[in-house]
Amino acid sequence: MTSILNTVDTSHEDLIHDAALDYYGLKLATCSSDRSVKIFDAQKNQKTLIEDLRKHEGPVWQVSWAHPMFGNYLASCSYDKKVIVWKEMSSNKWTPFYIYQGHESSVNTVSWAPCEFGLVFACGSSDGCISIVSLSGDGNWIARKIDNAHPTGCTSLNWAPAFPSDDQNESVFSAKRIVSGGCDNIVKIWREDQSGQWVLDQNLQGHTDWVRDVAWSQNIIHNKTNIASCSQSGKVIIWSCDLSDTTNGALSIWKSKVLHEFNTVAWHVSWSLTSNMLAVSTGDNKVTIWKEDHLGKYECINDDKLGN
């Protein structure tokens, strides 16, 4: 497989912790230990800086774009215990729209929900808690907490896609779900019940060190959904569930396979839109891409080193 590698000079003054393209791939957001969030025009080979956002008071760990049906929103989370929701108020002019300060320690991860559920984000913190924060119809933000989700710290989380409900009405979706990983070495699946409370669906145990990232595939293939997780030890696991195997609304039967065990930390996992390819970034400055064949076997199809 031949790959084309484009680099972006962000001019960040310290380590870059995350980079994310918006829904259409037109804008690129980056964040860094220099306490800044930067937005670039990604439409040209020469990426142009649009905004340099500096409201955080500590390293910024992650950025996440909301679905554009709500407008242009970007969330960022930081060591300063805050999540800032930025909004593009006019062309290329961004401002803080909302600041969430519901955690007692570093907020390590933030992720927007599927657009079917409204303007909702989830964030996880070193205080062990997960917050689900939604914008109500009257313009107020409402937060719900999962206390002690990962008692020693939450490192990562991601939303499940909006599964169709059992009543066959395509406009009705099943419960909201989140997958999270933490310093307890466990991958956990959470579900919002009918009362609006978040309950634990499943503990997925297979890692022997901190779970560094989790990713829920956004495309359902043959009624199957997948989660990828990676850890400090370098192990990457694929968890699979048949959507017909549910118990009282819970996705109860998960099967696991070890994709690979790297000789260094595995930092990040990311599914393709088709959900049959997975990218893994590791501590040796490499990104590997794995593709699933028709038999369910994953093969490494590319192995790129980034930077020097």
UniProtKB/TrEMBL annotation:
UniProt protein name: Protein SEC13 homolog
UniProt cross-references to SUPFAM superfamilies, sorted A to Z: WD40 repeat-like
Taxonomic source organism: Brachionus plicatilis
Gene Ontology BP annotations: COPII-coated vesicle budding; mRNA transport; positive regulation of TOR signaling; protein exit from endoplasmic reticulum; protein import into nucleus
Keywords annotated in UniProt: Lysosome, mRNA transport, Nuclear pore complex, Nucleus, Protein transport, Repeat, Translocation, Transport, WD repeat
Similarity field: Belongs to the WD repeat SEC13 family.
Mind telling me which GO cellular component terms the entry cites?
Answer: COPII vesicle coat; lysosome; nuclear pore outer ring
Q: Does the keyword Acetylation apply?
A: no
Q: What Gene3D superfamilies does its record include?
A: YVTN repeat-like/Quinoprotein amine dehydrogenase (2.130.10.10)
**GO molecular function terms attached to this record:** structural molecule activity
| Main localisation | other
Cellular location(s): Lysosome; Nucleus, Nuclear pore complex
Pfam families, A to Z: WD40 (PF00400)
WD repeat start and end residues:
53-87
Q: State if Protein transport is listed as a keyword.
A: yes
